[in-house]
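tl;dr need the bound structure. longer version: we got a ligand (adenosine-5'-diphosphate) that a collaborator sent over and nobodys looked at where it sits. i said id run it. heres the input, straight from their email, havent touched it
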Amino acid sequence: MSNVPEMFGSLVFNDPMMKERLPKDIYKALKKTREEGKPLDLHVANVVAAAMKNWAIEHGATHFTHWFQPMTGITAEKHDSFISPVEGGRVVMEFSGKELIKGEPDASSFPSGGLRATFEARGYTAWDPTSDAFLKDGTLCIPTAFCSYGGEALDKKTPLLRSMEALDRQALRVLRLFGNEDVTRVDTTVGPEQEYFLVDNELYKKRKDLVYTGRTLFGAKPPKGQELEDHYFGVIKPRVSAYMKDLDEELWKLGILARTKHNEAAPAQHELAPIFTTGNLATDHNQLTMEVMKKVAARHGMACLLHEKPFAGVNGSGKHNNWSLSTNTGVNLLEPGDSPRENAQFLLFLVAILRAVDEHQDLLRISVASAGNDHRLGGYEAPPAIVSMFIGDDLAEILESIEKGTPYKKRDTGEIEIGVDALPHFPKDTTDRNRTSPFAFTGNKFEFRMLGSSDSIACPNMMLNVMVADVLRDFADQLERAEDFNAALNKLIRRTIKEHKRILFNGNNYSDEWREEAARRGLLNLPSTADALPYYCSEENVALFERHGVLSRTEIGSRCEIMLENYCKQLQIEALTMLDLIHKDILPAVCAYMKDLSATAVSKKELGVPAELETELLKKLSARSSGLYRAAGELAQDVDNAPKDAGAAQQARYYHETVFAQMERARAVADELEVLTGREYWPFPTYGDLLFSVR
Ligand code: ADP
Ligand code: MG
């Protein structure tokens, strides 16, 4: 193993590298831009660009690219070489400040959800100096935001950065009220835990459904699944271990703080968690992590599956978005603290989040809405589609005693007066963590667990930031006006608990009882993407995003449109892949088996031997294959009948209710056929083959 500290960040043009390679005044100017968002002047940019280019060339780079995150959910890059012709048919390597700061990729082929029609097709990319440039496959990658010429965001980074600004503004107002004068910036900290599956690449290639759609569209339950619970935290197999080691190194070189790795609940399922960092950087790093995971898997003869539900009947993959607020002075605002002042401030932030989650359940659900994630949410394995919040028994009791003005049991003195009394001591790392909760307080941060494994974390974090910023804004408005701060604070916290405690739930989120209870409490239950997305454009949401300058009405409309369109396209691709596999692979395979069975039956009869088995089996296979053929016919019809001129929301509903439902029916028949068909005949690897393929 090479020297890790030396390897760490070796492919990143990071702060130490800038310090080493830039003249002092230039370094200072750049640092100011990075820390305070001050604009960068062209002279500074030119010097930075030249230094970056020299560094990149020394590391073997020949090209640069503006690396951005369009609405496709993955990253995009267009590579330009550094070459510039000079006299005598020769070239020199050049890279200007202008090229560093701004790029102009053709925006017309990226999803814009209607923005394209109203604005110029060309978009531009703008350097995000808060995220470091890095090297990937001989190319200098410059993290950028991607906007239309009118300034409308066409990507996931722009609104995330805007939301971080909004939260910073409002959190600072609140901190001032508590007398924090030294804090000049509040950032979000984010640590995303990433789940994934590994399967053998040779088998993967034989599963066209995995290749085209990322998930298996067919597959009978294998004799062994995850019922023995022997995989979670189990011994890591040698091939997987070699992969994880290689993956860690590649991530470390990119300055990504990969830390924890272990086996997950399902066979062939694993997890990687980095150490948390600033929200924006964590988002860039998570996108890179997903990319590197796939690349390294290929090197090890495996395929890394990031789909939310690659296999029916075993756990799907999610992503846990650990989120907190941190000051530039290094204080975690969700750390309960020891003194009354800190406690009061903590409680105010806590109830702000309580109210934000209650008021904006729809936004949290929307932020994780995708065709893939619909399989998990509500699937008795992951958090349900109902948003609720878990804060642990101790905190819940404290909130209850504050609300009711009753003494807190675990404390000798009377009722709690915020800002005067210290909070009673409560265990910070509560061991009785509620693993079923979609949004759980885990000691000094919240863990949002509804994200799908392939999701970009940009949108969930953007939503969280705006929601919380909006409540803090209202709190600051109220408290800034108050004559008696402590009295107003007490009243505000008490009222907020009373009005929003319905969102708290400490029980089993997978149970039917909770579904019923949540309905009684009036909580939203939006099981599918088609149900959730229309809420995005509600008047309250438009007002919320516009109030904080995070998204305009047009931008929200376009985002909603893109997500709905993606959903329909995804289901359409799945349906077409299914039809292809049924007609080209499954039915021919079953027919071949039936042919051999018939031949055997005929010869047996000629010899006067009873052919009971063959006849019985033939009957079953024949009935089911006809059934599958009919189901496929109906599915083809359903796809053809998709409403073409209807709005995106209506189309999504159709795909969910009609196309997807028919896919489920067709699958059920195909899986029965798989069970009955001889191994040699079945046209692709089974679940058993795939899930236990890597030793
Ligand atoms: P578990 O699986 O028990 O939830 P892990 O260690 O796998 O725990 O993941 C916890 C994640 O939370 C890590 O990525 C960690 O860096 C992150 N985290 C810890 N503290 C904070 C914080 N203050 N803000 C954001 N993320 C945090
Ligand atoms: Mg974990």
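gonna send this back to them w/ a short note. The longest helix spans residues 553-606.
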